[in-house]
Each structure stands twice: as C-alpha cells, then as structure tokens.
Design a protein that fits this description.
- The chain is an alpha/beta fold.
- Helices cover about 35% and strands about 20% of the residues.
- The chain has 15 helices and 15 strands.
- A hairpin with a 5-residue loop joins β12 and β13.
- The chain is globular, with a radius of gyration of 26 Å.
Length: about 450
C-alpha cells in the first residue's frame, strides 16, 4: 500500500478487530454504515488511494460495489434506508462524512460541529440544529484529519488547534483534546462557489448603489481602506468585492493566515502564512510576509486581516508610497478599529509614544467601512467614516454614511433601514478629482433619519 493510502483516513488499513466490532457493536443503520464502510475499504483499498483515478469513475465503482455489499446485507432495510446508507458511506469515503450534504447546501453559510452528536448550521443569518451527526469522536477526528491534511497542516495533542481551508476556499477551524473538553470541535465558514459581486451585496441590502459607487471611486483613487466589524459580519466577503474595484493593470499582493480571497484580476500574487512545524520551527508570520511584499514591487497590498504586530509594518507601508492598501480588522466601531490598531502597533515591541502611533494611523488610514450583523440575521454596512488628521492627541473622524435604524422593522422583524448620507463631503474628494475621478454632486446630500 502506498504512503498516500496509509495517510488517507478514508483508505487507512482497518484491523480485523475493528471490523468485528463494527459488525456487532452497533444497532440499526449506524451498524450497517460502519460495516459497509470497512468492507469497502477492505475490498477497494488500493483503488481508493490511487492518485491517477478519475473522480467520476471512482464514484461509479464505489456505488456498484456498495450495491453488491448491500445485496448481501441481512439487516432489513427500506428503499429510503438503502439510499441514505449509500449516500453516507460515499460521503465518508470521498467527502467529509455527515457534513458533506451541509457543505453542498447553498443556503447554509456556516457549519458548526460542537461534538460528534451535535451539529449546528447557519442559514440566512440564523442558527439551527441539524439532524446530521457523526458515529463517534473517532469518526469526527478522521474527517478533521482529512481536511487539515489536504492543505499540509496538522492537528494532534501537541498542536490541538488549527486553521485550514477547504479546496473551495471555505475557512476551517478545528480544536481537539486536550483543549476541547466535550469532544472534537469543527467550525467551517462556507464560501460561495461563485464569489459574491457588488450587485449581490446590493441585492442583499448590505450596501446601496450610491455607496458602491463611492467605494469604487475610493479604491480606484488609491485610498487606504480598512474594513471593520465583528465576527461573521461579512468583512472578508466585502474585502473580496472591494478588491474587485482595483484596476486590472495593477500588481496586487494578497497576504492571509489561510488563503481565502478570490480576486478576479489576473496579476495577483497570493501569500499565505505558515505555522511552526512539529519542532516549533519554520513559522512564517503575517508580519514577515508584509515586509517581504514590499520588495515585490506591489501596486496594492491586501492583508486579509490585521491582528498583531504586522499592523506597524502595514502602517509604515501605507505611509511610504504603497497607497491603495486594503485590510480588515475586528472591532465594534470605527473608533474602536483605530484603538485596536494602536494596541497592535504596541505589540511590535517598540517603545513608541502613543501620539506618534496615532499620527501614523491618521496619516495612513483614509476610510473605515464598518459592518454589523443585525438581529434579523442580515449583514449591513453600518458606518462609512473618513479618518482626518490630529486635533491635539485625538484622531479626527467624521461619518460620511450611516445606517438609519429609526426606519423600524417590517412584519417579519427585518430591519427597514438603509444607508444614508450625513451631508458631510469627505476632504479626500478633492484628491480624487485631481486624479480624474468624479463623484456625483448629490452623492453626499444630507438624508435625515426617518424619525428622532
């Protein structure tokens, strides 16, 4: 058996004792599923691990073999039971087990495995418990191993947490024993097979056509944009869309912990951080990649998320001619985003006075786009704020657009509000006009809230 066979959880050799326990240790459909899974590996192990096998041909062979094995099965099964068992065994061998069908459901945006028996999903911004489940913790661990192994990551007791991604770019986080008390935990933030466009976000109500036009002008005008928001508010999705406004003739470098961005331009160089190996060596941090990118002649630097000491290097890049950079940051408001940037700069270990840090921040960041996930499950751009200079020790900020909560709720409990202009024209519009980028005269016209 090849090395690939031995390291693939789906094709790893199964001990005779395991097969015996599978036959007698479980009742009903679970017993049949496990029994068939082990028999399939016994009879088709080499074919399952063959690298040159065509996926469609392999699936067809597996289905034929499973039908043969089911015909020999003595347990009484209905037609629906047979279909379910066939699907589940194929998902275990070729896919990701019980969560495969959830990953294929276009309405599901997040899959949250709390333990082998408990799986939750997010659908239309709301969380529901799924009826799907794993056979046991060992089954869940095999699927986690399969996912992280595909991207060259590892998870074990020495390294019990891991960030990874699926082949389609979906974000994966897994935690196992000894950190996970109630069993292995797996969280998957799904990405759409077709990346969302600006039109999709307008249709979702995340932003308005006028705001999309404004952001397009800001990106083409090489303003430094920071996208802020809480967990699951759609920061990465908006970053993908906003990055699409970058002209196709520019050289873009993306830097991420786990590669998720899918830019449509041709001239894109993707860099991904690397965790330490089993000996604790070989780590390449985001900060190292930001520094290295400056030697790669970038027109734009897109940092998937700034969360540590790399904030200092990013600010210095923005202040030394690398304009038009875009990044995301976790925060509760635009003002909090700048406060977090200050804290992260201090994490770099340099003894810088706070005023010097704030001057760098105010000179580097031009615009903050803040997102929120509302109570009705929708994701909205809540504020768009211009970052000005300094007044004393305080960074000047002014809202350009705001979300009008005063418009209330409809009969289904969904927010009726929309983004409205505050009436303040950002100072950088003159800079945009100098570059030949015009903004409509009524774009910033004051729109009063529905009520006070």
């Amino acid at each position: 058996m090849s090395l690939r066979d031995r390291t693939n959880p789906a094709t790893r050799p199964v001990a005779a004792d395991d097969i015996a326990s599978a036959r007698i240790g479980y009742n009903g459909k679970d017993s049949v599923k496990r029994h068939l899974h082990h028999l399939l590996i016994e009879e088709m192990g080499n074919e399952l691990g063959a690298a040159e096998t065509d996926d469609a041909a392999l699936r067809s062979k597996i289905e034929r073999k499973l039908h043969e094995l089911l015909d020999r099965e003595t347990t009484p099964l209905s037609a629906n039971d047979r279909k379910e068992i066939l699907r589940d065994v194929i998902d275990n061998v070729l896919g990701y087990g019980p969560i495969q069908s959830l990953l294929e459901d276009p309405e599901i945006t997040e899959v949250m495995v709390n333990n082998a028996d408990t799986i939750y999903v997010e659908r239309r911004g709301k969380i529901f418990q799924s009826e799907r489940r794993f056979i046991d913790d060992a089954h869940l661990l095999r699927i986690i191993d399969k996912i992280v192994g595909q991207v060259g990551r590892r998870i074990d007791e020495a390294s019990p947490m891991v960030d990874a991604r699926l082949p389609d770019g979906s974000r994966v986080n897994a935690v196992i024993h000894p950190l996970a008390i109630n069993g292995p935990m797996l969280t998957i933030r799904k990405f759409s097979k077709d990346p969302f466009t600006v039109d999709d976000l307008i249709n979702f109500g995340t932003l308005t056509p006028s705001v999309a036009t404004f952001l397009d002008a800001c990106v083409r005008g090489k303003l430094n944009v920071l996208i802020s928001g809480g967990t699951g508010t759609g920061k990465t999705t908006l970053l993908n869309v906003v990055s699409g406004f970058v002209p196709p003739d520019e050289r873009i470098i993306t830097i991420e912990d786990a590669a998720e961005l899918r830019l449509s331009q041709e001239h894109v160089l993707r860099l991904e951080a690397r965790p330490p190996n089993i000996e604790g060596k070989g780590q390449v941090a985001i900060r190292d990649l930001v520094r290295n990118s400056l030697r790669m002649r970038p027109d734009r630097i897109v940092v998937g998320e700034v969360r540590g000491a790399e904030a200092l290097d990013m600010l210095q890049a923005m202040n030394t001619g690398h304009e038009g950079s875009i990044s995301t940051i976790h925060s509760n408001s635009p003002r909090d985003a700048l406060a977090r940037l200050e804290t992260m700069v201090l994490m770099a270990g340099l003894d810088l006075p706070v005023r010097a840090i704030r001057e760098q921040v105010s000179a580097a960041i031009d615009l903050i786009v803040h997102l929120s996930r509302l109570r009705d499950g929708t994701r909205k751009v809540e504020q768009i704020t211009e970052v000005g200079g300094m007044e004393g020790d305080t960074i000047i900020m002014q809202d350009i657009f705001y979300f009008d909560y005063s418009m209330g709720l409809d009969d289904d409990g969904r927010f009726l509000g929309t983004l409205k202009a505050t009436g303040l024209r950002p100072a950088f519009t003159e800079r945009l006009e100098d570059l030949g980028i015009k903004t409509a005269g009524d774009l910033f016209a004051y729109e009063p809230p529905a009520r006070r």
